[in-house]
């Protein structure tokens, strides 16, 4: 279990995030939603240890009751864009996280190549990012993130650049991947439909600092999340977002 306690982030004299606390469970997808600019990405960046030093941040992070300081090997951050390097092949891009973690290039490449078929990337090993579709690039970015085997992954709007159909396919694909290799996921999204389809828990951030506006457990099994079944929770979330 990863606990964030009393996280506050300020920009000069303005509080962006204040008193943000939550617990992330392994095997649970937690979606973080909130109005634009409320600090969702900044929370993820703090957890990843890459928040700009020009922003002041205070707060405690504990992993299984032991205090830790970000960046920590238990978390991997996937930024908003797919962030693949255009001059590297898909295999080289996918292996990059392992190589940065100190795994020799040959071993890292062999590790990622094993997963190309499962990730729907067979045949793309030696292609460059511009030669494959947006959905494939996103899967390559997920491969780079997931092979790092960290207990928690931090996803910043991973599907925002995709068209509607690819987005739905990728959401289903991610749920399948997580069913096979469960991780704790904290995912920022603007899309209420996406949050209610994917999440086990939804955290709603307020517009102007302060504790979470809501922490909602989504108990409907994923296969039973029809429009009708999820209508009530979507209405609640819409009201919370409009209020904030
Ligand atoms: N390094 C920085 N220096 C100054 N201001 C920053 C910095 N990083 C973020 N901000 C400001 O902090 C605010 C919150 O940014 P953040 O990206 O965390 O919000 P968000 O909720 O993820 O936004 P969105 O939903 O629009 O992606 C924004 O107004 C942004 O301009």
From TrEMBL:
Checking SUPFAM superfamilies in the record gives: P-loop containing nucleoside triphosphate hydrolases
- Do the record's keywords include Nucleotide-binding? yes
Chain segments annotated as coiled-coil in the UniProt record:
none
The name under which this protein is listed is NitT/TauT family transport system ATP-binding protein
Q: Name one GO molecular function term.
A: ATP hydrolysis activity
Task: Spell out the family assignment given in the record's similarity comment.
Answer: Belongs to the ABC transporter superfamily.
* Organism domain of life: Bacteria
InterPro entries attached to this UniProt entry: AAA+_ATPase, ABC_transporter-like_ATP-bd, ABC_transporter-like_CS, ABC_transporter_ATP-bind, P-loop_NTPase
Swiss-Prot/TrEMBL keywords: ATP-binding, Nucleotide-binding, Transport
Q: Which PANTHER family match?
A: ABC TRANSPORTER ATP-BINDING PROTEIN (PTHR42788:SF2), TAURINE IMPORT ATP-BINDING PROTEIN-RELATED (PTHR42788)
Give the matching Pfam families.
ABC_tran
Q: Where are the transmembrane segments?
A: none
Taking every annotated instance into account, which residue ranges of this chain make up the domain ABC transporter? 2-232
């Amino acid at each position: 279990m990863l606990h964030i306690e009393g996280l506050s982030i300020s920009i000069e004299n303005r509080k962006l995030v204040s008193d943000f606390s939550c617990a992330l469970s392994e095997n649970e997808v937690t979606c973080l939603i909130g109005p634009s600019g409320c600090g969702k990405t900044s929370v993820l960046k703090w957890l990843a240890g890459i928040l700009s030093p020009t922003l002041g941040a205070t707060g405690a992070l504990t992993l299984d009751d032991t205090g830790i300081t970000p960046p920590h090997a238990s978390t991997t951050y996937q930024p908003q864009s797919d962030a693949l390097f255009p001059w590297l092949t898909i295999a080289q891009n996918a292996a990059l996280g392992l190589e940065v973690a100190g795994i020799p290039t040959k071993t890292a490449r062999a590790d990622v190549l094993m997963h190309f078929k499962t990730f729907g990337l067979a045949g793309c090993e030696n292609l460059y990012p511009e030669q494959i579709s947006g959905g494939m690039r996103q899967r390559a970015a997920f491969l780079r993130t997931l092979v790092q085997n960290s207990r928690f992954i931090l996803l910043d709007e991973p599907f925002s650049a995709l068209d509607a159909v690819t987005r739905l396919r990728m959401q289903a694909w991610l749920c399948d991947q997580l069913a096979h290799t469960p991780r704790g996921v904290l995912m920022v999204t603007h899309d209420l439909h996406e949050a209610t389809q994917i999440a086990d828990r939804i955290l709603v951030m307020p517009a102007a600092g302060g504790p979470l506006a809501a922490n909602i457990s989504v108990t409907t099994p994923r296969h039973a999340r029809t429009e009708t079944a999820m209508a009530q929770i979507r209405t609640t979330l819409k009201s919370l977002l409009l209020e904030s």
